[in-house]
Structure formats: C-alpha cells, structure tokens
Amino acid sequence: MRLTIWGCRGSVPTPGPETLECGGNTSCVEVSLDNGTALVLDAGTGIRRLGQQLLERGTKRVHLLLTHLHLDHVEGLRFFGPLWDAQTTIDIWGPPSPLLSLKERIGRSFSPPLFPIDLAAVPADVEFHDVPRAPWTLAGATLTADLVVHPGPTVGFRVETPTSSFAYLPDHEPALAGVIAGRSTDWLSGASVAENADVLFHDAQYSDEEYEERIGWGHSSIGDAVTFSRAVGARRLLLFHHEPAHSDDLLEGLEAQARAVAGGDGSSLTLAREGMVVDLP
Amino acid sequence: MARRHKHLVLILARELASNLATPTLIANDEGQLVFYNEAAEEIVGRTFAETGEMPLDDWTGSFVPRARDSQESLPAGRRPARIALDERRAAHEQFRITSLDGSDRDVAVTAFPLFAHADEFVGIMAIFWREQPGA
Q1: C-alpha distance from B84 to closest chain A C-alpha (Å)
Q2: CATH of domain B8-131
Q3: Interface test with B, best of A100, A171, A192 (most B CBs within 10 A)
Q4: What is the Rg, in whole angstroms, of the alpha carbon atoms belonging to chain A?
Q5: What is the CA radius of gyration of chain B?
Q6: Size of interface A-B (CB pairs under 8 A)
Q7: Sheet holding A199-203, edge to edge
Q8: Which segments of chain B have a pLDDT < 50?
C-alpha cells in the first residue's frame, strides 16, 4: 500500500511562498494498492493534480471516499479530470444524511450559481454510495468507516490489507467528547478506525493555545492529536489538516513541540507535506 | 468494525449525561445498559463502575419497579426505557422503586430513542425525575 499526499491543508487553499514546504492544497490522499487500484480519500483541491496523473496513467476506475462534505473536502471534485472522461467509472462513497442523498448533496455544488454544469452532464459513469456501517471490501482492501466528532455527518476511514493498516481522520475533535488520555478506547471517538493502525493521518489544525479559543469548531490541537495517537496505539502519526494561517516555519516549530510531547526520538511523528509518499508493506 | 466500540451518538450522549445534574442512563440498541451518570448513582445506590454494563431489564428489575397506588409490579410494557427500545418512541411513567440501599423512592422516568444520521437507531436515553413519596 502506498499513500500519496496531494493536499493536507485545512479549511481553505493557501498557495504562496510561505506554504511551499507543506503545501496549500486542501485534503486529498491517494491510496495505491498493490493490484493497481486507486482509492482517493477526499476531494479537496489536491485532487485536481491527482486527476491529471490518473488520466496520464490511463486509470479507468476510481473509488473516491469522502469523509464529509465541507467545502474544503469537495471543492476540487468539479476539476477532477476523470470526472470529465466518459471512459471512467467513479464510485463516490460518503457519510449518510437523514434528509438528502449523497448525490443530491454533492449535486448542489454542480449547480448555479456555484457551477455552470449540472451533475447530470458529467461524462464519467458516477455511482454514489452511503458508506456501510460494517466493514466492506474494495479492490482487495478492507475498508471501515465510522462516524466521528466533527460538525455534521463525518466519518473517518481505515484501509487495511493483510499486511498493513492506514487510518485517516483529517477532521476530528475527539476532545469534545471528553478527556482523551486514560479513556477506554471503546468510548473514544475515532478509535474504531484508528486503533493499532500502522499509520494515522490525524487532524492537528491548531496549536494548543489556538485550540482554547476554538473548542467546538471540529478540529484538534496538535497536543490532542499526539494524545489520541498514543491512546489508540497508532505506530506512526502524520499531523494533517494544517491551519491556513500557519506558515511552513510555524508548522515546523509546532512539529518540534509535538515531538517533544510525544517523547522518544520523534521518528514516529511528522508533519504531513504535500507530495509526501508513505510506503507500507 | 469491532462491536465493542460505541457509536458516536452514544459517546456524545455519555458526555452530555456526565455533565448533567439530572439522573440519566444510556442503553445501546441491544438493550444493554452502557452508562449512568453520577446523579443516577444517588437513586441507584451504586456507582456505574460497580454495576458495569448489563442487560437493562436485569438492571431495572433489581429495583422492583411498581405502581405507586397498587404496588403491583410494573409490566415491561409500561417501563419507559423498554418502550423506547421496543417501539422506538418517547415514553413517560411515574412509579416507585426500591434502591439498593433499601429505601423506597417515587420516580418519574422519561425515555426516548436515539437515532443517528440516516435514522439509524443506536440506543436510548432515560432521565429520572426525582419526586417525594406520596407527591
């Protein structure tokens, strides 16, 4: 399993000289399985460049897994090249809602005044699916989706092969549901997808000081991300969903703080960076 | 996913209950008592840590719920938590119980179902309203 980060910025794209190192595109991660299948996690602006790559590779089947439908996680979808290729089949998976189907909710962003072309006019063969409550299999990998603490219907994902596991929780505020440290994992939001993962990408949008002013906004402090990772026994943590106001320099300072909190040699903790590739056995 | 992980709605409900001064209990969709708060411990006479998770009916039965006037056992069909579990609707009832410390208490209980996104039934909450005997 290979993980490629196409976007790890939170909330809004932040291009510019101060974000060249970590990147300014919003959430998008490619999961390449050994059989060549491409799973795509979230459709932030990073998905635009990924789409170009997939077209160049001749990929004809894409599974797109959406954690939720906040704008920074879907705003790249309209510019995802495979969507405009009639030879491509795309399965889009997302959290259920009691009111509107996934197709109807996504369709809102494919309509005036937000966009000139209706979803029905998209050339690709697109199917929409609510994520199942139980684990399911896609292209030889076992996927798990479970609701997590974040405003509105939001899930985290776990992708597991016989040899490795990856958990993806880009927008998650577990501290809102109680103290993380010392809590039994059966009562810990996100633990059902992250427990004992080989690699965990977790929301770390705020410094600990910033978080005190933004409790309930749906995101975690870097300290809480480290505590959560330790609580669920993840072997490696990538700090994800960077605050738009955080420059590369600031993020590197926060990474050093996080490593100090985590202890050890810090090798199991790093900032997510656009373009980073993580290989798992 | 492993069943032992609680549904997000139950996790959030527990956090709410933990911060309420009103006695509150939570059961999952299978009728398993999974939590009651400190305020409920006063009525129950035992901490949740001592009780642990158990079938809600077993737990309720240990308090000998009965009608206030006739003292007859309150049938399951009149127990609000059981109604909320079976019929997935809100229910309210006044009755008398005997706490584990042996004291009789008149209580009113309101129970209601918890539905997650897409109308998934995940459990119930029950709230105890303390009343004076004979009130």
Answers
A1: 20
A2: 3.30.450.20
A3: A192
A4: 18
A5: 14
A6: 53
A7: A136-138, A141-147, A155-160, A165-169, A199-203, A237-240, A269-271
A8: 1-2, 135
The single-letter code of the amino acid at A70 is H
pLDDT band at A265 (very low <50, low <70, confident <90, very high): low
Number of domains present in the structure of chain A: 1
Q: What is the CATH number of the domain that holds A247?
A: 3.60.15.10
Domain boundaries defined on chain B: 8-131
pLDDT tier, A46 (very low <50, low <70, confident <90, very high otherwise): very high
d(CA B27, CA A251): 43
Q: Mean pLDDT in chain A?
A: 95
Instruction: Sort strands A199-203 and A165-169 into parallel, antiparallel or unpaired.
Output: parallel
Q: What percent of chain A has pLDDT over 70?
A: 99
Taking 90 as the threshold, does the pLDDT of residue A99 lie above it?
Answer: no
**Residue numbers of the domain that contains A10:** 2-279
Which pLDDT band holds residue A279 (cuts at 50, 70, 90)? very high
Residues in chain A whose beta carbon is closer than 8 A to a beta carbon of chain B? 95-98, 130, 133-135, 144, 146-149, 153, 176-178, 185-189, 191-193
Handedness of CA A49, A50, A55, A61 (dihedral sign): negative
Contact call for residues A226 and A261 (beta carbons, < 8 A): yes
pTM for the structure as a whole? 0.92
Contact flag B8-A189 (C-beta cutoff 8 Å)? yes
Chain B residues within an 8 Å CB radius of A133:
120
Give A95's contacts in chain B (Cβ within 8 Å): 117
Does the beta-carbon distance from B11 to A96 stay under 8 Å?
Answer: no
Q: What is the ipTM of this complex?
A: 0.83
Q: How many residues does chain A have?
A: 281
Cα–Cα distance measured from residue A191 to residue B72, given in angstroms and rounded to the nearest whole number: 45
Burial of residue A208 (number of CB atoms within 10 Å: 0-12, 13-18, 19+): middle
Which range, of A6-10, A195-199, B70-74, averages the lowest pLDDT?
Answer: B70-74
pLDDT score at B132: 59
